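The following block was generated as part of the benchmark described in Methods. Ligand: glutamine.
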Amino acid sequence: MSELTAKTIAELRDGFRSGAFSAREIAEAYNAAVSAARTLNAFTVETPDDALAAAEAADQRRGNGELPSLVGIPLGIKDLFATKNVDTTAGSNILKGFRPPYDSHVTANLRKAGAGMLGKLNMDEFAMGSSNETSAYGPVISPWRRKGSNVGLTPGGSSGGSAAAVSAGIAPGATGTDTGGSIRQPAAFAGICGIKPTYGRCSRWGIVAFASSLDQAGPMARTVRDCAILLEAMAGFDPRDSTSLDLPVPRWEANLSSDLSGKRVGIPREYRIDGVPAEIGALWDQGIEWLKDAGATPVEISLPHTKYALPTYYIIAPAEASSNLARYDGVRYGLRVEGVKTLDDMYSATREAGFGAEVKRRIMIGTYVLSAGFYDAYFNKAQKVRALIKEDFRKAFEQCDVILTPTAPSAAFGLGEKMSDPLAMYLNDVFAVPASLAGLPAMSVPGGLDAQGLPLGLHLIGNELDEQIVLNAGLAIEERAGFTARPEKWW
Ligand code: GLN
């Protein structure tokens, strides 16, 4: 890593402002790092000229009064966000060649804050997956390796490109999206931070839809502070998204404090599940100690419907996906298979050629649970269970201010290890999905390394709209964990 690519966003921002280096130097250092790391397959498109143009503008603005937060900072953008005139494919063949004539609300906000773009980041197709292996561009390879081994590992998914890029030092920060864990699980696997805000904080406008009642954008970066800076720029009301929250964006960075005096940390009994490695349990206990040291009091809480969260998610998410993905019919966007007889043949040939196996599985499950004969038994039932899961959290937050759990039930696994077993793959999100179903803010912060030298994350869940306590507890952990490990460069 060059000196500049080793810096956090806060350090880049402050150094640029004080004149220690120029925005051009930052952009050039990152552009060089991106092109030197193609082996990782983290980017689907590189946009060095975009990063340079934003840097040029930043250098011209320096010294001319108050600057917005991200002037001089280049970022990686998950391929799920529409980016004006730049390929936006959601990791799918069906959208290959699609160049939206507009920016998503979130990426437009980042531009308004002064950020440039290094490129589009690889991801699981339509954000369906936990390992990045469902991408039409092939998997992202994690920059991390087990001690003494060169087996290729997953960076997690679906925001695997974002996680790999930030941990490898080829982007100082990136956007991610989280429907059922896709910011938090890859952040944990890659030893970085990632926060999913309260549902509705970030507009979904211009983000390719997977499951609309769950999809939320959020930042992934090396530190808690960097996540606060990015989230402040990404969030905000947007009348084009009917679920966007019409609330001012809090000053999360200015209000960061790792003093948790008087705060209660909920430890959910039901999250001690079988089959989770002892090291993860030990890190969880260590996390409780760190939060106690920061002034918080641990309290045992109960989230009794947790055990139904994964099955509920795997009914609701595919149901919404099957409806959202109906628009890819060869008429309006991307791929169209020609040379068939009828319109119906064109639809099915296009969808057959354009979607990968996992996406087809979700469409079939989703269509089935929404069908007339099964709607009540599955979809309606799942909606009721979702309400109970939400209610569990409402009660829990009468007893505590923030909840601490592990982020994922394992460290990063090998590429190919779980692709033939969708249920094992779905289990990755066992700790992440309940907060998604309840629409709550949640974050993963690196806690330490396992015996094989791979990162493990701790997961914090806050009450609705209380991103601040999540960030503050994250900061308390970050300060105590002293996690400075970075993958050794082999790429
Ligand atoms: N891994 C989960 C899934 O495959 C979550 C994905 C996400 O959050 N986008 O659906």
